[in-house]
Every structure is written in C-alpha cells, then in structure tokens.
Amino acid sequence: xxxxxxxxxxxxxxxxxxxxxxxxxxxxxxxxxxxxxxxxxxxxxxxxxxxxxxxxxxxxxxxxxxxxxxxxxxxxxxxx
Length: 80
Hints:
By secondary structure, this protein is an alpha+beta fold. It has two helices and five strands, in the order E-H-E-E-E-H-E.
C-alpha cells in the first residue's frame, strides 16, 4: 500500500483555488487567533494572492496572513 505524506497547506495551495480547511494546528498559540478570525475545520476559503502575505477570502471577508502561519492550516482543493 502506498502512503502519501505530503499535505497541502494554505501556504502551498495555488492562487484562485477554492479550498476547505481540513485541520489547524491544535497546540500553537498563534492558531488560536486563526480560530478567532473564523478559521476552523471544514470552513471554505479562497486563496486570492500569494506574496509576502497570503490573502484569502473567508466568509466574504479578505484576510491577509503571514506565510509561516499559513503553514499551520491544512487544506484540500474543492471543485469549483
């Protein structure tokens, strides 16, 4: 059986992708702030810009996040 250990994070997802959050790091104090902003498992996110800051749309609101913080958000691509 072949196992794939590669995880897609918000930082590595492509711009324009519609995504679903699968997991956010439970132990990181910075991830608590993500939850306060509305990020949680199964929420839909669209990544709209990828630069020094990653800009995404969540619940109709644009949010800019640091790349390092986006490494803590595991996502999956969903059909358009």
